[in-house]
Specification:
The protein is α/β, with parallel strands linked by helices. Helices cover about 45% and strands about 15% of the residues. The radius of gyration is 24 Å and the shape is globular. The protein has helices at about 5-15, 30-45, 55-70, 80-90, 135-140, 150-160, 180-195, 195-205, 210-225, 235-245, 295-305, 305-315, 330-340, 350-355, 360-370, 375-385, and strands at about 20-25, 50-55, 75-80, 115, 120, 125-130, 130-135, 170, 175, 235, 245-250, 265-270, 275-285, 345. It has two domains: about 5-130 and about 280-345, D-Maltodextrin-Binding Protein, domain 2 (3-Layer(aba) Sandwich); about 130-250 and about 355-385, Periplasmic binding protein-like II (D-Maltodextrin-Binding Protein, domain 2), CATH 3.40.190. Helix 2 packs antiparallel against helix 12 (about 305-315) and helix 7 packs across helix 8. The chain has 16 helices and 14 strands.
Length: about 400
């Protein structure tokens, strides 16, 4: 073999080995430690090197527009807010992923936030879920309780918990800024109005004083009136009280698994009949100005697919948006959450999505509802006044 051929092969090998993708994400500390195995596995399988950099979304919101204007990007795959991805995808600064990401392989609704029309500008990675009511398995076993499968069984469960000595109330009410109460309320709206109701309320396509909303709110007020919910208390304080046995149930997001002494003692159930769940996914995109578009697309497809997500959920604390991941991949407590969301629609948080003056009004009115459920009509009137209009 001539020295020119050898030299050419060396040059090609060097060039191939020089491909390094920069991934930008928000995770540092323990969260970063759980993300790095995902990137390392991709490197192992493809030979493509990864350089991970930490940027907060708030900082990226200021940095990226200027970079895009100069036809540059600080990374090849960037995790960012879905609203940002939609906006700058439409402006032509983000590579479309239509054809790269197959929507049929994801939890229904999980990609809606990064889609404009039929064009997909980003992907949904893993995330946190607000699945339902948490309980201690040891508490249920001690008191011979079972998760309900019907509304009637749910009410019967609350009655049994209420009669247990030392119980303040069957359900702990987290509060502070108002959002824990809103999460419970959304769960009732989704369960008794369907996933589409959540979407319509966010878009302002339906009135708060409509029959479908009032039906869901009546279900909620019926158990408020019976004293099944405890007094609203700062959410981290009442979490400790619930864990210590002052309450039987606590509605909270899946991040609760990292806030208790023994997550293996956690169980969770959704309201019977719920067909939707609020899912806070982490979204990512490929900027138009990447030097390695094909490699970046390969990485983002791997990250958002079952292979990459399986590595992530195995670390604990994350729930996959991709379907086809065996439940045995999850740690036991996350497995309970993953079971609940199988076959349901992933939805955005209602008050976070609407924002503006509606959000604080929603929180304040729910605080009123919790202490005076008979004023539900007054609450609904205020929410309709503050809600977005079409």
């Amino acid at each position: 073999m001539s020295r020119w051929i050898v030299l050419s092969l060396v040059i090609v090998a060097t060039l191939l080995g020089a491909t390094t993708l920069t991934v930008i994400g928000p995770w540092s500390g323990p969260e970063m430690d759980k993300f790095m195995p995902v990137l390392q596995e991709f490197e192992k399988q493809t030979g493509i090197k990864i350089d991970y950099k930490i940027y907060r979304a708030e900082d990226l919101a200021n940095l990226l527009p200027a970079q895009f204007a100069a036809k540059k990007a600080p990374g090849d795959v960037i995790f960012m807010w879905a609203s940002f991805i939609r906006e700058y995808g439409q402006k032509g600064h983000i590579l479309p992923l239509t054809g790269v990401i197959n929507e049929a392989n994801y939890l229904p609704g999980s990609l809606n936030q990064v889609k404009v029309g039929k064009e997909l500008y980003g992907t949904a990675y893993t995330g946190k879920v607000k699945p339902g009511f948490w309980y201690r398995k040891s508490f249920f076993e001690k008191n011979k309780l079972q998760p309900p499968t019907t509304w009637e069984e749910f009410i019967a469960l609350l009655e049994k918990i209420k009669k247990i000595p030392g119980i303040k109330a069957p359900i702990a009410s987290g509060d502070g800024v108002g959002w824990p109460l809103s999460d419970v309320t959304e769960h009732f709206l989704i369960t008794f109005g369907g996933p589409q109701l959540q979407l319509d309320l966010i878009e302002g396509n339906i009135r708060w004083d409509s029959n479908i909303v009032m039906n869901a709110m009546t279900k909620l007020t019926s158990i408020l009136e019976k004293g099944y919910f405890g007094e609203p208390t700062e959410w981290t304080l009442v979490l400790k009280q619930w864990w210590n046995g002052d309450y039987g149930l606590y509605f909270m997001g899946s991040w609760i698994t990292g806030m208790v002494d023994n997550p293996d003692d956690l169980g969770v159930f959704a309201l019977p009949g719920a067909k939707g769940v609020v899912f806070g996914a982490d979204y990512a995109f490929v900027p138009k100005y990447t030097q390695y578009p094909e490699e970046a697309k390969k990485l983002i497809a791997w990250l958002s697919g079952p292979q990459g997500q399986a590595v992530q959920v195995k670390q604990g604390g994350h729930i996959a948006t991709a379907v086809g991941i065996d439940l045995s991949t999850y740690p036991p407590v996350d497995r309970e959450v993953a079971k609940i969301i199988q076959g349901v629609t992933a939805l955005d948080d209602l008050d976070d999505s609407i924002g503006g003056e509606f959000q604080p009004a929603f929180w304040d009115q729910l605080k009123l509802l919790w202490v005076q459920p008979s004023r539900v009509n007054d609450v609904i009137k205020v929410l309709q006044e503050k809600a977005p209009k079409r």
